[in-house]
Write a structure and sequence with these properties.
Layout lengths: L40 E7 L3 H13 L5 E4 L15 E2 L7 H8 L1 H24 L7 E9 L2 H20 L11 E4 H8 L6 E9 L2 H14 L3 E3 L4 E6 L11 E5 L2 E10 L5 H4 L1 H6 L3 E10 L15 E4 L7 E4 L10 E4 L6 E3 L9 H15 L1 H4 L5 E11 L6 E5 L9 E5 L9 H14 L30 E2 L1
Parallel strand pairs: 1-2, 1-10, 2-7, 4-12, 10-18, 15-19
Antiparallel strand pairs: 3-6, 4-6, 5-6, 8-9, 9-10, 11-14, 11-16, 12-13, 13-14, 17-18
Helix pairs in contact: 1-6, 1-11, 2-3
């Protein structure tokens, strides 16, 4: 699946189907009303039906079921990054603590740590509270290092964070318990012969597509109007809008124009197409990330990782990671392997209708190198290859807040975008913060200061993401 015509910058109409989207969810092509309701003045129009859009709608309607909320999705429900990721829910950026502390101060680094850990906890709590059928599993995840120098640097961060915990106990919130393994103990823990060090901690795996679709269903049950296969083409302020209950914004779609008091961009990698001034800053950089689902090698049946786990290969330089589907789940034993950045021309593109064949080859065959040819055995078959459009910022933090650049003096254009490929550990909490800001006028104190949208217009941007090391197209 793939191909077809596309409007530059906007979601491609015919993306490669992801592993999770087989079969499609019952609400994939849902339209609450047959026609686009253009006569209604909406309280909110949300553009995008991924985890951000779904969470914003659910949280708004939970606070006030009387709200009139319209959601526009260019393709099928949860068809973008939220339905295309690697299936992991992990607070995996703990080793950014040192660089965040150096760049933004210790308090900001601790705030991020609290935020990420709470987001992961909130994801688990949401699944359990609502009985979401998304193959959610508690696992021990592992950050694996194979190069001594990289492992030494990781240990230095661990020591620095533990020193802060001794000096400021509890300052980062509940301290996530992480265990350090070295040498032979590390190799035995993950069964990787080249491992020199491993850090393990609690995390989760899931079917992200089914999670987001269930979140959308809960919104629909509360009155959300979802219009799939409806592409938003332009967001513009209405002239002469005078506040009160009058519409302040119009959203032009390929099926008509709707009006609203507030618009929420939950558009992540596609945001630049709808926001010319933001696009001109170059702050948001979209890219295509790829994954392959592969059958493990012939000798892997009793390997420790086949018990169901998630792993980040932190020093390979390709952003590599993988998870294994549990034996009692669909696709039992499939290894979902993502990364391959060193061979990827993945930035400055929103085309997920095609795949980079060099990355496909890398992802399908790297397992043999990672585990060792003897441990791996004969290669298994490739089950499915897919990609998704992710979105990066120079400082690695998302953009959360109200935009005042598109129409100075005109309020009501909001966004939570730029998840840096880490949305399952950031987006739910960002949505909570955005809803708090939209409904009370104040940002919650727990929202890290570096997440604020205003920094886009600050020319003294902190560069931490390493984007310049990626090959671009």
């Amino acid at each position: 699946m793939g191909g077809g015509e596309a409007i530059p910058g906007f979601p491609h109409p015919n993306p490669v189907r992801s592993y999770w989207q087989v079969p499609p969810h019952p609400i994939a092509d849902h339209r609450t009303t047959a026609d686009l309701p253009t006569a209604t003045t909406w309280d909110y129009v949300i553009i995008g039906s991924g985890i951000t859009g779904a969470a914003v709608a659910h949280k708004l309607l939970t606070r006030d079921p009387a709200l009139q909320i319209l959601m526009l999705e260019a393709r099928t429900a949860a068809s973008a990054a939220s339905g295309r990721n690697g299936g992991q829910v992990r607070a995996g950026w703990h080793l950014n603590f040192a660089k965040y502390a150096d760049a933004f101060g210790e308090d900001a680094a601790l705030a991020f740590e609290r935020f990420e850990a709470q987001n992961v906890a909130d994801m688990a709590a949401f699944v359990r509270a609502h009985g979401v059928d998304c193959d959610f599993r508690d696992v021990q995840t592992a950050d694996v290092y194979t190069a001594p120098a990289a492992w030494a640097a990781a240990l230095a961060v661990v020591r620095r964070r533990r020193e802060v915990e001794r000096r400021r106990p509890g300052a980062g919130g509940p301290f996530v318990e992480r265990r350090v393994w070295e040498g032979e103990a590390a190799r035995a823990r993950v069964g990787l012969p080249s491992a020199v060090g491993v850090i393990t901690y609690a995390a989760h795996t899931q079917n992200p597509y089914r999670l987001v679709c269930r979140m959308l269903e809960l919104g629909l049950e509360k009155g959300l109007n979802l219009q799939t296969n409806t592409m938003a083409l332009k967001v513009a302020p209405l002239e002469g809008a005078d506040g009160g209950g009058a519409a302040k914004w119009e959203v032009v779609t390929d099926r008509g124009t709707v009006q609203s008091q507030k618009v929420v961009l939950a558009t992540n990698g596609y945001t630049n197409a709808l926001h010319a001034k933001l696009n001109h800053t170059g702050f948001l950089v979209p890219g295509r990330s790829q994954l392959s689902a592969i059958r493990p090698g012939s000798n892997m049946a009793h390997h420790p990782v086949m018990e169901g786990t998630s792993v980040g290969l932190n020093d390979i330089g390709n952003g590599d990671y993988f998870m294994v589907c549990d034996a009692d789940l669909p696709g039992a034993g499939d290894i979902l392997y993502g990364g391959g950045r060193s061979v990827s021309k993945s930035l400055h593109t929103v085309d997920d209708s095609v795949l980079n064949e060099k990355v496909v080859a890398y992802l399908q065959h790297t397992g043999r190198q990672v585990f060792g040819s003897e441990t791996w055995g004969e290669e298994g078959e490739a089950v499915r290859d897919w990609g998704g459009i992710t979105c990066y910022t120079p400082d690695t933090f998302p953009l959360v807040g109200e935009d005042t650049a598109t129409a100075p003096g005109q309020k009501g254009l909001w966004m939570s975008v730029g998840m840096n490929g880490h949305g399952m550990a950031l987006a739910l909490r960002c949505a909570e913060a955005l809803v708090e800001m939209m409904t009370t006028g104040e940002a919650p104190e727990w929202l890290p200061e570096p997440f604020r949208l205003e920094r886009v217009w600050n020319k003294e941007t902190v560069h931490l993401s390493g984007l310049k090391s990626w090959v671009t197209v």
